[in-house]
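Standup, Tuesday
Yesterday: got the pipeline producing structure tokens again.
Today: sanity-check two examples.
Blockers: none.

Example 1:
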Amino acid sequence: MHLAYPAVLAALLFCTGLYGVLARRNAILVLMSVELMLNAVNLNLVAFDVWLRDRLHSGQALTLFTIAIAAAEIGIGLAIVLAVHRNRGSSDVDRLRDTAETDEAETVPAGDDEDDAVTAPEDQATAAAGKAKKAEATP
């Protein structure tokens, strides 16, 4: 078997995965692209293992470790994406730049309407309660 065939296929898979990581905005598609890149590495490991005729089959053993790492990565990655989607309502990667939690109770709407004057004491009370809760949580 020529080594060029699986090496070219692995290079094409890796480039496709790299394009997906760099160009996609959906987090699930980014995770799928990372899996493509890992599969390209697995293909190279097995191809070089066959080409070198290694008696210990270390390329295949490393491939099994890579598959296990990929399974753990996709499990944790999907859990993070689902948690972000529940909190933010979108899994768009561009919108995830600021992942710090913001306290919505501390923001007071701007304006001099009569409704703002009525709800301002309630907003101040909830903001004070939010600050007290943060102070209790910090050691």
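Example 2:
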Amino acid sequence: MTSVTVPPPPAPYLPRRGERYRLVAPNAPTAPRIVRDFVATVLRVAGHPRLVDDARLCVSEVVSNVYRHTDSAQVRVEVTVNRRQVTVYVTDDDPVRLPARTRGAETGADTGATEGGRGLLLVEGLAARWGTTAYGVRSPLSKTVWFTLSASGG
């Protein structure tokens, strides 16, 4: 009999005040579109239509990275919305490679990887804050890439 241990939900590393919406999707080629539409719907209904386009771009990049660079079976998304900001958390079960923008991505230099790090430059340019967190003390079990968009534009 095989036993599968599911890691606990990530501990909060940013204030999570506001309404929370969650989606779990298979890590498949359709995941970026499904998650993008989910996030757009949440933001429109929550009264943040001006953040929809930026959120769609950012979440598309992050979820596409999960699909391209991990063996995670699922991608878990949480959107926390309040009147001042929106934070999107994208979690997968492959913590080996934490994403980071590459120096070559800034200059357009060849870093040996197609589009390597450029998506994160986009996230960095649009988000008020972004980052990554790995979960698990000695042997990480999962990671989250998160970004915050400010309703005030800053």
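Quick observation on example 2: The radius of gyration is 15 Å. Residues 1-13, 104-115 have pLDDT under 50 and may be disordered.
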